[in-house]
Amino acid sequence: MVDIIDILMVSILLFNLYKLIRGSVALKIFLGILSLYLVYQVVKATEMELLSALLGQFMEVGVMAAIILFQPEIRKFLMLVGNSTDFKNFPLLRLFRSRKDKDTELDISPIVEAMKEMGASATGALMVISKDDALSYYADTGDHLDAKISKRILLSIFFKNSPLHDGAVLIYKNRITAARCILPVTENQNIPATMGLRHRAGIGMTEVTNTAVLVVSEETGQMSYIRGGRIFHNLSTLEIRQKLKEYFADSTDRSNKISLK
Ligand SMILES: Nc1ncnc2c1ncn2[C@@H]1O[C@H](COP(=O)(O)OP(=O)(O)OP(=O)(O)O)[C@@H](O)[C@H]1O
C-alpha cells in the first residue's frame, strides 16, 4: 500500500515538474542530463573504465550542477508550493478572520469598462487579479496603493504619460493594491514571437501564482485573459467578464469568500 502511494506521489511530482519546465530551455537541459546519465550507465555496464571515470566525475557534482542550472525552475516550484499552502485558510485560523474579510466583493464592471476604453485608444495595460493572496512580494516591486477599483483610476494609471503606467497593477479584494509592479517573464518558448514582454510577463505571473491576468495590447488594442500559463487572445468584454466569473467560481478556489457584482 505504502509503495503504491509512494509511486503515485513520485508520478504527481514528475508530472508537475514536467508541466513547470515544459516548453522552456530547462526541458532541453534536463533531456541533456538524462542522455548523459544513460550513456554513463551503458559505459559502466560495458566496463569502459576511462570514460566511466570521466563521466563518473561529472555525475558526482550532478546534484550541485542541477541546483545551479535549474535555479529559476526550483524557485518557481517552491513558490508554487508556497502559494498552494495557504495557511490563512486553515480551519482554526478561519475562525479568527473578520466578517468584513468574508464579504469582499470584486467589482468587475469598472475593470472591463476601463479595458474597453483602453482597447479603443490602444493604451497598453497589464492587470493582475488575485482572489486569495495579497501578492506582497510583487507589490513591493512597484508602488503601493490602496484605492477602490474605479474605471477612472485605472485609466489614469495606464494613461501613456502617467508616471505609474509602466508595469502591472495588482488587484486584491476589490482594491488596487499596487501599480508599476514587475512580474516574472515566462520562459515558455512556444509563445508566438508577436507577443512581447507585456504578454509574457502576464503569462509568467499566472504560471507561478493562482491569479488571473488581463492585458490590453498597446499595438492592437486587443484584450486578453491569462490563467495558468494559458492566454485567451482577442476577447470581447463579455468574454472577459465570463472568464473572470469562472476564475472566482473555480472549484480550486481556496477562499470562496469573494463574490461578484
Ligand atoms: N516583467 C514585466 N513586468 C511587468 N510589466 C512588464 C514587464 N516587462 C514589460 N512590461 C510592460 O510591458 C511593456 C512593454 O510591452 P511590449 O510592447 O514589449 O509587450 P507586448 O506584449 O508586445 O504588448 P503590446 O501589444 O502592448 O505592445 C513595458 O512598457 C512594461 O510596461
UniProtKB/TrEMBL annotation:
Residue ranges occupied by any DAC domain in the UniProt entry: 71-237
Gene3D superfamilies the UniProt entry points to: DNA integrity scanning protein, DisA, N-terminal domain
Bilayer-crossing regions: 20-38, 50-70
Enzyme Commission number(s) of this protein: 2.7.7.85
InterPro entries (alphabetical): C-di-AMP_synthase, CdaA, CdaA_N, DisA, DNA_integrity_DisA_N_sf, DNA_integrity_scan_DisA_N
Enzyme class: transferase
Annotated Pfam families: CdaA_N, DAC
Catalysed transformations (reactions): 2 ATP = 3',3'-c-di-AMP + 2 diphosphate
Keywords attached to this entry: ATP-binding, Cell membrane, Membrane, Nucleotide-binding, Nucleotidyltransferase, Transferase, Transmembrane, Transmembrane helix
Chain's role: Catalyzes the condensation of 2 ATP molecules into cyclic di-AMP (c-di-AMP), a second messenger used to regulate differing processes in different bacteria.
Binding partners and assembly: Probably a homodimer.
Family membership noted in the UniProt record: Belongs to the adenylate cyclase family. DacA/CdaA subfamily.
Protein name: Diadenylate cyclase
UniProt organism field: Algivirga pacifica
